[in-house]
Amino acid sequence: xxxxxxxxxxxxxxxxxxxxxxxxxxxxxxxxxxxxxxxxxxxxxxxxxxxxxxxxxxxxxxxxxxxxxxxxxxxxxxxxxxxxxxxxxxxxxxxxxxxxxxxxxxxxxxxxxxxxxxxxxxxxxxxxxxxxxxxxxxxxxxxxxxxxxxxxxxxxxxxxxxxxxxxxxxxxxxxxxxxxxxxxxxxxxxxxx
Length: 193
Hints:
Elements: H1 5-16, H2 22-38, H3 43-128, H4 132-192
């Protein structure tokens, strides 16, 4: 298993962080600065130290600027995540409201369906009975029949009354005849005796 440069850099970044050499860099800058300040005899060494100081300062400025940019980017990302979180919470709230609304609609649909089933059952019962016009026509026929029957009853009662009177006259005549016959029998029996 070979270790690549990328693996080494990743390991260093994990251990030291993004600006992990800052402490070393500051210590080197101080040493180089002190050497620069203390050495006055060799111009070449002074120029080299001066160049090192400038390079270290430039590197440090770059690192500071980079850290500031990373910090600003992190703030923006945090802001972005906060907005995203708020949007998600809003969508969850809207979804919850929508679910509640849909539940109400389902309940209403169930109620409407139940009512329709009841209406259909009532309609079947109603269909078994004749409609109003048919019922009215049947009632009119029954009224005519009742009127006709009442008229027949009246006629029959008049006939019955007439027959009673005739029967009464007949009975009275029979009683008269019986009386006459009895009287005749009594007279005959008296005459024969």
